Amino acid sequence: MALILDLDGVVWRGNDCIEGVSQAIKILRDHGQRVIFVTNNSYPTRSMVCRRLRSCGVDSSVDDIVTSSLSAATLIKIDSSVLIVGGPGIEEAVNARGARIVKIDQKMASGENFFPDFIFSENPEFVIVGIDPDITYTRIFAACVAIENGATFIATNVDPTYPTDKNRLAPGAGSIVEAIKTVCKTQPIIAGKPSFFISKLIKDSLKESEEIEMVVGDRIDTDGALASSLNTKFGLVLSGVINSKNEIANIKPEIVSERLIDLVEKFFG
Ligand SMILES: [Mg+2]
């Protein structure tokens, strides 16, 4: 059996590992569960995710990591040109797919005209947008121009926020996607949770005999919906975006727990 675990808000929150996580994953593995980590965070590469997991006391292999970047890359053609608004996770996935990353050659704005002038190294056939802490006005502008010129608009995910360790919500990829949508009036194809594409990627990563036992996450709209699309149980933890049972009155996860360790002890203990 396999258990699908979200990362942000389940394994860690901001810079902090959530208490009891390494013990919870040990219990799961002792019960014969393969743990597959599935994140809508498109920023890290899979090896960055493994390193981060190790810092929380969890060993993992890149084969057990599924990201929205990997899912986005399944939507592009091999040998195509891709403009990226995002981080190393998307770059790695695009390179692994054999596509080319379009560069932007920017001329400095001059005088009172602040609109940047730029040219593409080649015409983008795809634009992939994810979380980008170094987002610039130029890159948003370039993405809009490429989409208006006919490039296919792909969003790694549309989560509006990410939970941080200071109980603040940071802007998520969805906030950046909205900025681009506002300009070019085009809807993106969404690659991450709970899309059909990432569900397929998860199913493809299962070994022949493996079946999914449960999806555990901190969001109804992504993790809960992913569980439905995979036709499996949903375990909600309150260590991330939703932190009060009152907020979940309208949805029905099979199990609700404060943290992953509580859920695991309740379900597998
Ligand atoms: Mg989460």
Q: What's the CATH H-level homologous superfamily of the largest domain?
A: HAD superfamily/HAD-like
Question: Which sequence of strands runs across the widest sheet?
Answer: 5-4-1-15-16-17
In terms of structural class, how would the helical and strand content be classed?
alpha/beta
Radius of gyration: 19 Å
CATH topology of the largest domain: Rossmann fold
The helix-strand sequence is: EEEHEHEHEHEEEEHEEEHEHEHEEH
Mean pLDDT: 93
Number of helices: 9
Bound molecules: magnesium ion
Approximate strand percentage:
15-25%
How many structural domains can be distinguished in the coordinates?
2
CATH architecture descriptor of the largest domain? 3-Layer(aba) Sandwich
Task: State the helicity in percent bands.
Answer: 25-40%
Main sheet specs: 6 strands, parallel
At the first level of CATH, the class of the largest domain is Alpha Beta
What is the tally of beta strands?
Answer: 17
What form results from the Cα inertia axes? Answer: elongated
Distance between the termini: 16 Å
Low-confidence stretches: none
Task: Provide a compact summary of the structure.
By secondary structure, this protein is an alpha/beta fold. 33% of the residues lie in helices and 23% in strands.
Structure characterization notes:
By secondary structure, this protein is α/β, with parallel strands linked by helices. The chain folds into two domains: 2-68 and 193-268, 3-Layer(aba) Sandwich (Rossmann fold); 71-190, HAD superfamily/HAD-like (Rossmann fold, 3-Layer(aba) Sandwich), CATH 3.40.50. It is built from nine helices and 17 strands. The strands form five sheets. The protein has a six-stranded parallel β-sheet, with helices on both faces. It has a five-stranded parallel β-sheet with strand order 7-6-10-11-14, sandwiched between helices. A two-stranded antiparallel sheet has the order 2-3. Helix 1 (21-30) packs parallel to helix 9. It starts with a strand and ends with a helix. The model has no long low-confidence stretch (mean pLDDT 93).
